[in-house]
Amino acid sequence: MADKSSRGLADVVAATTSISDIDGEEGRLFYRGYDINDITGRISFEECVHLLQRGDLPTADELGAFANELTGARWIGETTEALLPHVVRSGTPMEALRTLVSSLAVDDPDAADSSVEADRRKATRLVAQMPVLVARYHADRSGREVAEGDPSLGIAGNFLLQVTGERPADRAAEIFDACLVLHADHTMNASTFTARVVAATLSDIHSAITGAMGALRGPLHGGANEAVMKTLSSIEGGVDTVDRFVRDELSAGRKLMGFGHRVYKAEDPRATHLRRMSEELAELTGNRHYFDFSRRMEKAVFDTKGLYPNVDFYAASVYHALGIPTDLFTPVFAISRMSGWTAHVIEQHEDNRLIRPASEYTGPVGRRWKDISER
Ligand code: ACO
């Protein structure tokens, strides 16, 4: 049997990185040395992308130039345009978007350039294109035109505008902006590791990101936020039924999505911020239903199993209150995480070594070939 401690590569240091760091015992997360608690609500997603991809928070001039660069990079290309109506017909959002992200490579002006400098340009484009893809996907499947972007709104505000069709309230846009900051990077999570494994073969950034999209989709990773919303909305009855629901699920041996984490032994600091946002939105919208259910579920899961909520748990009620359709929750995660994924691909390509771990063979040995008539 393989050593249990290496199952799922738990605690294995698979790469060095200067992009983000987690203190799992204390429940702290850092982006390039900045504590997430210090920057959430104080920097925009655009500043966060600059920090992750380029190493530092931008000056005012740098931010202006970077924001212009992002705005100018929203074009998704003719190939992706042509593909959109087909994937809208056939796929769930994450399947469709995984295919669309892959297709962005075709018309990328740097497609044939595998230098790290070209990676940086493609990274900026991918961050700019991702919210456009999600908004376009949603508009196409809803049979309507996507709303014209508003240059006075950043990535967060424009996304809410284009998905809901209504200009978001200032506070709603600020909250969503902070959500994008909170989801931007998280060390060697499954999708980032996937991106690095692909990049480490010296494959291209679009291939790495397509792999990351596939990894993010699963319910044990980014797919959990959608699963949380489905769980919350499946509970029949009032808030008092939550305790019983939790007990029944756990005693049936089922996992409750949005709880537990490989690295955090204390509360996930992102969950602390998202809980606050969920409560604020409950008050602003005058609808406390999902916040109250979430609070009750959090308490019941902690009392029964000692598990803390992770980033996906309160993200569900926050996105719901912001008017985002449930099946776009994981794509929203991808909009944000694109910044971290691309930063990691750049870092991998800057100092590359093939990622190729070992395995321990547990199958039969010493078998001898027999002719097919004797098997
Ligand atoms: N509900 C119930 N029990 C749980 C949960 C949960 N959400 N999470 C962990 N446990 C239990 C397991 O059943 C296991 O119990 P056991 O030792 O009695 O068998 C123990 O806690 C350890 O759990 P593992 O799944 O082995 O822990 P691992 O580190 O491999 O997995 C993971 C971490 C995948 C996040 C897990 O906690 C989980 O499945 N959570 C639900 C899915 C989820 O919310 N994913 C999003 C994570 S955050 C992100 O990726 C963005």
From TrEMBL:
Family (UniProt): Belongs to the citrate synthase family.
Q: What is this protein called?
A: Citrate synthase
Output the Gene Ontology terms for molecular function: citrate synthase activity
GO terms in the biological process aspect are: carbohydrate metabolic process; tricarboxylic acid cycle
Q: What is the lineage of its organism?
A: Bacteria, Bacillati, Actinomycetota, Actinomycetes, Jiangellales
Gene Ontology, cellular component aspect: cytosol
Q: Name one Pfam family in it.
A: Citrate_synt
- What organism, scientifically named, is this protein from? Phytoactinopolyspora halophila
UniProt entry tagged with the keyword Transferase: yes
Pathway membership: Carbohydrate metabolism; tricarboxylic acid cycle
Q: Which reaction does it catalyse?
A: oxaloacetate + acetyl-CoA + H2O = citrate + CoA + H(+)
Top-level lineage group = Bacteria
